[in-house]
């Protein structure tokens, strides 16, 4: 009987696998209903960009289905807020942000899943959870984010004697893979000349310095913003280079750390 089942089930697996793949592709294009959604571990891989400061490139951090859901969710939340001002906490740097953004609801099942995945990724890094997820959109024709830090020069005080800052950042690419729009880290070493040109740019910034990541859908960058003594690390200064053609969608996932001032 065991041999008979092996002969029957193996061909059955071969036959059903293509249909399963077709169903998954169809399901991914038929809307973003969360009926039956299971938050599973992501099948991503990582590449260490820098050890000091810590910076890691993540391949396949979120799935195409999750991206479709997040894009739909952003559209349902209402209009993006357009920003055309200096980066609020670094005005002395003359850093200008020209982009649009909105925050995603924390009670969405997929948003919650991505927060859990991000929590697993940071492991034992001391933290106090994440800020609300923020989707950003850059258009061609001047949208950009000049060199800036994610950490606050003057972090907000949440309770008496307790201050919170952004310990680490994820930036996840949600499409549509425009021309330009690289995320450039000005004090990290450039990618090697033989690096994958679909993900990394050899034209790293206007002055030719730094490490630049192209907006490759589903992938992400992770980096630490604070030193162990909770002061900001100036070496993680970064910018969003201008869009030459198309539209860039991304998502900020910002890890908080609270401490006594």
UniProtKB/TrEMBL annotation:
GO terms for MF: iron ion binding; L-ascorbic acid binding; procollagen-proline 4-dioxygenase activity
Keyword DNA repair appears in the UniProt entry: no
Record has Oxidoreductase as a keyword: yes
Domain of life: Eukaryota
Residue ranges of domain Fe2OG dioxygenase in the record: 129-257
One GO location term (cellular component): endoplasmic reticulum
SMART domains assigned to the protein according to its UniProt record, in alphabetical order: P4Hc
Cofactor field: L-ascorbate
Entry keywords, A to Z: Dioxygenase, Iron, Metal-binding, Oxidoreductase
InterPro entries to which the protein is assigned, alphabetical: Oxoglu/Fe-dep_dioxygenase_dom (IPR005123), P4HA-like (IPR045054), Pro_4_hyd_alph (IPR006620), Pro_4_hyd_alph_FE2OG_OXY (IPR044862)
Protein name from the UniProt record: Fe2OG dioxygenase domain-containing protein
UniProt organism field: Penicillium brasilianum
Lineage: Eukaryota, Fungi, Dikarya, Ascomycota, Pezizomycotina
